Amino acid sequence: MAATRYDVITFDCYGTLIDWERGIQDAFAGEAFRSGTTFDGDAILRAYHELEPRVEAETFRPYREVLGEMARRVSREFHWEIDPGRLGFLAESLPHWAPFPETGEALRRLAKEGYRLGILSNVDDDLLSASRRAMPDVFDPDLIVTAEAVGSYKPAVGHFEEARRRIGGCSWLHAAQSDFHDIQPATALGIPSAWVNRKRERSTGDGPRPILEVSSLKELADRLCGDSGRG
């Protein structure tokens, strides 16, 4: 059965296109090694997931500062005091976080099929630009909306409202890994969404559901490129 055809597909970046969990674990591991500290990488991620929404919901600040505050709060959860001069290690590492293995090929397939592609990301402009420079052969987005541009972090609706303003009347699908940050606010606004649910998690929301749920970007490309055509 052919999928609905969209003009524009937007993506969350970190967690959807780029393996941010591996990037965070590697960054903390490197800083821990530097300071002679050891920790459980999975426990670091659990603490990060719990604390990040609280930090982003506080007074808006640049994402570099969010990352510094996350480094401070997460390390304190494990009774590890990072030198204040070293709190920038997460931001310094971010441009080196790698895409998921299927990211490049999936995006190339979608672009070749004629979809316009975009990014809605909870970061500063310069950090996203650095990530894009690290993977220049992947794609050149037609649309970029950052937290810096809208002055808020998803799940606040600023990214989606700005994207809707720019996209206008074109048909639009938003694809993301985070149910909390992306899928729930997008569906609440009536924006069709695709949940890239790599971990087969259960939604914590009780609102409208995404129109697609896939396990990878490859599966998303398979579904959208398959037999679909214009019109």
Automatic annotation (TrEMBL):
One Gene Ontology molecular-function label: hydrolase activity
SUPFAM superfamilies registered for this protein in UniProt: HAD-like
Source domain of life: Bacteria
Annotated Gene3D superfamilies: 1.10.150.750, HAD superfamily/HAD-like (3.40.50.1000)
Keywords: Hydrolase
Keyword Hydrolase among record annotations: yes
Pfam families in alphabetical order: Hydrolase (PF00702)
Matches recorded under PANTHER family: ACID DEHALOGENASE, PUTATIVE (AFU_ORTHOLOGUE AFUA_6G14460)-RELATED, HYDROLASE, HALOACID DELAHOGENASE-RELATED
Protein name per UniProt: Haloacid dehalogenase
